[in-house]
Inverse folding.
C-alpha cells in the first residue's frame, strides 16, 4: 500500500491533464496559468466597472483589488522554475471563492450557492489546508440563503460528487484494490 499516493492532492492530476491531454500544452504549469487567466478575466472587467463607477457591487470592488496580488503572483510564478506547487492553484481559486461568496451574499440564488460550494470543495481536493476556508464558505452559504432546501440539496450533491470522486481516486492510487 502506498499512502503517499492516496493522500496526495489532486493538483498534480490537473497538471498532468493540462500537460498532456487533450490539447497537449506540454507544460505542467499550464494548469496554473489557465486558472490565473480566468481569475484575470474576472478582475480586469471589475476594474473597468469600478473606474467608471457604473453598477459597482461589493464583488466588483473585491475583484478589482485582487488584480494587483494576482499580477504579482503571476510574475513570481513565471520566474519560478521549480516543482509545481498546489499553493499556486489555491491562490486564484481562493480569490474566486471569495468573489462568488460576495456575489451570493448580494444575490442569494441556488446557482450561486452551487458555485461557492463546488469551488470550495475543489479547493479542499487541491489541498487539505483549504478546508478551513471551505468550511467557512459553506457555513455562510448554508446559513444565509433564502432557498435553504435547494442549497442543502446542492451541498449534498457536491459532497457526494467531489468528495466521492476524490476518495475513490485516493483509494485507487493507494493500491488498496490490488492488495
Amino acid at each position: 500500500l502506498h499512502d503517499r499516493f492516496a493522500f496526495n492532492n489532486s493538483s498534480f492530476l490537473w497538471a498532468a491533464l493540462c500537460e498532456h491531454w487533450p490539447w497537449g500544452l506540454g507544460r505542467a504549469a499550464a494548469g496554473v496559468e489557465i486558472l490565473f487567466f480566468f481569475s484575470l478575466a474576472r478582475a480586469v472587467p471589475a476594474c473597468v466597472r469600478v473606474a467608471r463607477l457604473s453598477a459597482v457591487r461589493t464583488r466588483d470592488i473585491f475583484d478589482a483589488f485582487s488584480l494587483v496580488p494576482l499580477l504579482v503572483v503571476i510574475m513570481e510564478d513565471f520566474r519560478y522554475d521549480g516543482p509545481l506547487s498546489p499553493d499556486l492553484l489555491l491562490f486564484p481559486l481562493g480569490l474566486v471563492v471569495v468573489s462568488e461568496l460576495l456575489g451570493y451574499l448580494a444575490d442569494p440564488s441556488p446557482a450561486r450557492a452551487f458555485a461557492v460550494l463546488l469551488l470550495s470543495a475543489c479547493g479542499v481536493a487541491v489541498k487539505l489546508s483549504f478546508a478551513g476556508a471551505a468550511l467557512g464558505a459553506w457555513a455562510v452559504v448554508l446559513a444565509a440563503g433564502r432557498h435553504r432546501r435547494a442549497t442543502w440539496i446542492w451541498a449534498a450533491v457536491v459532497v457526494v460528487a467531489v468528495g466521492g470522486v476524490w476518495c475513490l481516486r485516493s483509494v485507487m492510487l493507494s493500491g488498496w484494490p490490488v492488495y
The mean pLDDT is 81. The two ends are 7 Å apart (CA to CA). The chain has nine helices and no strands. The first helix runs from residue 3 to 6.
